[in-house]
From TrEMBL:
InterPro entries: McrC, PDDEXK-like_dom_sf. It comes from Adhaeribacter aerolatus. This is IQ calmodulin-binding-domain protein. Coiled coil: none annotated. It comes from the Bacteria.
């Protein structure tokens, strides 16, 4: 049973953390240096006696500590609880921390740790599946039986049962709970038993183990998750498998001391901001007759040697009259409050290629600021819009909708 020693360290994106600060020890640093290795990681860089975080946010669990990396807009921002709530809400609304309606009512979040929330979501999903009954599937099985069932494998039967005439070596079909979906859940439960530091979850995890104890282990990989498919019977597994994939593929065991394991649940803040904006716009504008599409990829250049280049705007909105608006999301504060030449050229290329009338460089803000300009050549417009999506410690998107509605 893991010790209930627990330390949460909260930092903001692009901040540094050095050994000796806030409970972050040399041992923790050495573990992250090994994790960084030769290939590196996009979520942080190595500095003298410490690490510096990038635009990735989320949580890094290193042994007995959890480092939460939070987003922020204002450099002077110091309210970690506010930005933790904003990050959690953004993950949920973007579909990266999905809670089913049936499980959300029983979900009791008592921890301030983003990682604990994921753990509790997974445990709650598994408890719901057990309540409904774990799915059984048919599978091929080969081995010795005391009665003839299926097809007798003659060569193996002779070699293994020459002195055991009461047994039959057969290949047959069985119907049980031993299939990849249940095996993935079992492996994730075993992982939680190892790395969980929450006393409130320990008894629930142990209870789950009793129900999965007869399911064999499985080797997980990205390819395994890509091969999975869901049907009417297994659709309730989708949320639990999604969380299991996140936990299992981002877990890196400490093979040296066996103590400082690393679990990295980190999200690119630029991609998260884009995904959140796309989800909100689609939800709010679909019923108003607007078309909202994300990441439309089209070829815009090709050489005689068949080299191809593509253009891919973040979001394209088409109103009921067919008028188009290109939105390029930016999770940053522009230098001197003005758009960069590169961003303006990018919007200009989008307007020409997709025959759109106006574009928006969309930045997050706590109040709305609009800077409007027009291109000299084709008359198309480009606006810098600081969208007031943050109020107190919550996300609101009325300002976002008002900012992009056009006729």
């Amino acid at each position: 049973m893991p010790p209930y020693k627990k330390l949460n360290i909260s930092v903001f994106e692009h901040e540094s953390l050095r050994a000796g600060e806030r409970g972050f020890t040399v041992s923790h640093l050495e573990t992250l240096q090994r994790y960084f290795g030769e290939k590196g990681t996009p979520s942080f860089t190595l500095i003298h006696n410490g690490i510096k975080f990038t635009e990735y946010v989320g949580v890094l669990k290193v042994g007995d500590i959890s480092i939460e990396v939070l987003p922020k807009i204002d450099r002077s921002e110091t309210d970690t609880e506010k930005w933790q709530n904003i990050l959690i809400n953004m993950l949920r609304q973007a579909g990266l921390m999905k809670v089913r309606t049936s499980s959300s009512t029983s979900l009791k979040i008592k921890s301030n740790s983003i990682l604990d929330i994921y753990f509790e979501l997974f445990v709650t999903e598994c408890e719901q599946l057990l309540h409904q009954g774990l799915v059984k599937k048919y599978r091929k099985k080969e081995g010795n039986l005391f009665s003839l069932k299926g097809a007798l494998q003659f060569n193996k039967h002779i070699s293994q049962n020459l002195t055991h005439q009461e047994r039959f070596y057969t290949r047959h079909t069985t119907y049980d709970r031993e299939h990849p979906l249940n095996q993935i859940l079992f492996k994730t439960i075993l992982l939680l038993q190892t790395i969980n530091n929450s006393p409130a979850l320990t008894s629930r995890i142990n209870g789950l183990l009793l129900n999965f104890s007869n399911i064999p282990d499985i080797k997980v990989s990205e390819a395994l998750f890509q091969r999975l498919s869901f049907d009417r019977k297994t659709e309730p597994y989708r949320n639990a498998i999604k969380i299991a994939r996140l936990l299992l593929l981002n877990y890196h065991p400490d093979v040296t001391s066996g103590q400082n394991h690393v679990l990295a649940l980190m999200f690119d803040m630029n991609h998260l901001w884009e995904t959140w904006v796309l989800k909100v716009l689609h939800k709010e504008l679909y019923y108003k007759g607007y078309s909202v599409e994300g990441q439309i990829k089209e070829r815009f250049w090709e050489s005689h040697e068949q080299h191809k280049k593509y253009i891919k705007p973040d979001i394209i909105i088409t109103n009921p009259k067919g008028k188009k608006c290109i939105i390029d999301t930016k999770w940053k504060t522009p230098s001197l409050g003005k758009p960069s030449d590169e961003d303006l050229r990018q919007i200009f290329a989008y307007l020409l290629h997709f025959k759109a009338d106006n574009g928006i460089l969309l930045y997050p803000g706590e109040r709305e600021i609009r800077i409007r300009g027009s291109y000299i050549i084709n008359g198309g417009s480009c606006e810098m819009v600081y969208v007031p999506v943050i109020k107190d410690d919550n996300l609101v998107y009325s300002g976002l909708i008002d900012s992009i509605l056009f006729t």
